[in-house]
Amino acid sequence: MKAELFLAALLLATIASLSAPAAARERPDAAELLVAALSSPATGYEAQGRIQSFAPGRKPRALGMTVYFLPDGRLRREVRASPRKPAEQVYIEDGGRRELYWPALATAWKGTVTHESAADRAARLLALYSVSVSTGGRVVKRATWRLDLRGPDGVLRRAYWVDRAEGLLLKCEEYRPDGSLLRRERLTALGAARPDQGLFRLDLPPDTPVASLTAPRGAAVPGAGFPRWIPDGFLALESRTEDSGRSYVVGYGDGVETFELRQTLGAKPDGGETSGRTVRLKNGGRGVLGREADGSRLTFQAGGRAYAISGEIPEDEMMRVADSLATP
Amino acid sequence: MTDDEEKLTDYFDGRMAPAEKAAFEARLAAEPALERRLRLLRAMRASLKAGAPAMPADLKASLKRQARERASRPRVSWLESLRAALGPGLGCGVGAAFVAALLAVAVKLALPRRHAADPAAAEWKDDAAAAGLKGLWIDDDGRDSDEG
Fold it and tell me: pTM for the whole thing?
């Protein structure tokens, strides 16, 4: 009888071990997986993808894209309504420069982008959020790990789906401070490729006007600072002064989401909001992260000016904008 | 900013279209003064970036030459020059006005600077890009699937 019981227990243990996925038993370190997900791929890829934007009370909006990656970090992103239609926008990025050509507007935008290593980006995320790893289902037919990044209040702020075999970032979601889904970016088809080097050069038609990617084309106020990095797809769309010329505001947008950079001489923005979470910026200064009705807000001081970044972009992107600010 | 200064900045920042760049490079080859200004701009940017500036040799030589010329002139104090120009009668009144003007400048410099003298100048909107960006996005079912 004892032998039968022992055999039954052994059988159950064997079945349990076989039914558990092998990879789940080797769950990776969350921080290491995050660095891998933010790193350049080991080989070249061509992918189709979709970005979806979600706003309360309206239908989701989406745009399609074709993306080419190279292992050295170069990237070409073509925005198109469908894979068979011509590109409506072409982005080229090499880690140091970002260029956009928009044929319909016959205009190009260029800018020097502050380069950040995957480790730097991961460090910023880990300073802001707690990260956990779990099994993530399949994306573009590949098994994934899911990384959840949560704020100190426990609310999910970002989620990444990372290819188990190669560490490629296949899908990510961003959430508002209240936990509602803000944006989803995912690859919908992925294939190894050796993209032509020429794809990573922007050959503009002669006499194409070139604008700054991050600074407005209006007369900049004396001593104003502009970021060297803004989120993918965003452009400077407007600038204005407020408070009888004391505050200078630049508005950025990507067609569905917006954020503003406000700079005020001396004073604290909007009379001095100080409540919120204190964060450390790259230059050693301190910033305060707070919530607004339509998103988040980061306030900080630099070079005798008070800055406020507010809008619908995630807090870590606000910090990256702040860290890239070229203050006078 | 003059037209040439703007072009120099655009060229230096790589913001020129290929045709415009080629034309500007032809001018640089033909106009040593323009080429020197480009080198000066490069040196200024490098000094802002790296701290210690590497001054172009010809600029250094030019500054030294100017300094030598000044040193060889007879030294006359600015007060003596002013006195000689105004004469003894006017000296006191104009001197007081000069001191008052200096004080006014000092007070102006001590006050915090305002951002923009003309708020309207900073007012700018790229309506075409804003509308174009909106137009890139289409209604979606919000599904999360591999199908594009």
Answer: 0.71
